[in-house]
Amino acid sequence: MEKLVACVQKKPNALCRLICFPWAGGGTSQLAQWGRLFNDSIEVFCIRPPGRETRLGEPFPKDMRSLVNEITSVLLKELKEKPFAFFAHSLGIYVSFAVALHLKEKYGLEPVHLFMSAAHAPNVSYRIINIMKQNHKKSELLAYVGMLGGNFELPPNEDIRRNIALAFRGDAEVFRTFSFEKADMNSPFSCDVTCFRGSDDKIYDVQGWQELTNGVISFYELPGDHFYLLKPSNESFLIKHITTCIENADL
């Protein structure tokens, strides 16, 4: 499990686990550190997809289904033993949703809460710009990654920047295979959903979550751009709000 999951502070007596899904090209360096910020009632697992950090030499998943299968097979034991919630940012939302849907359909497991940040609801018509064609120059790719985050600064080391760009490209290819059609199915979830976004980021159509759960939907706008969650004040708000939601859930 250590290959897929980063857990910087184990909390065996935690009441709930928060599973974090990073953004395209991202790793565990930011969200995994939340494990030190939550109290002892919440243990944080951050997903580490192939193609980055300690998995740098591994091939990227061929499609979303492959990634979902790896995550669910590795985490199934932990997800069965105690309640869990999901936090996902940007395109990582679609990985978390696909995992949640698979867990519900195959194992009858459901998060106690979904915390979704800076992306459209998965059942809403959306368009991911395909800039990951093989003929794109690495310099163009790096420029796009930098532009995506606004004030998010890429590391100065050229090798690290190149690895981030390659991870972004690999993740984008996985995201392109994601699809979800609600059609006439009943709401797949019953848990509450909280949606966050930065005030300077683009407007996201998150209303679609109301069709996907029978739970309560909440929306919060915090100051900042696409990577608003990296600002210490916003991070503090997220930690407190997520803690309150989980502790108020029927665990």
Automatic annotation (TrEMBL):
Record EC number: 3.1.2.14
Cross-referenced Gene3D superfamilies: alpha/beta hydrolase
Domain Thioesterase: 17-243
Top-level EC class: hydrolase
PANTHER family: S-ACYL FATTY ACID SYNTHASE THIOESTERASE, MEDIUM CHAIN, THIOESTERASE
Family, similarity comment: Belongs to the thioesterase family.
Name of the protein in question: oleoyl-[acyl-carrier-protein] hydrolase
Taxonomic lineage: Eukaryota, Metazoa, Chordata, Craniata, Vertebrata
Name of the encoding gene: Sast
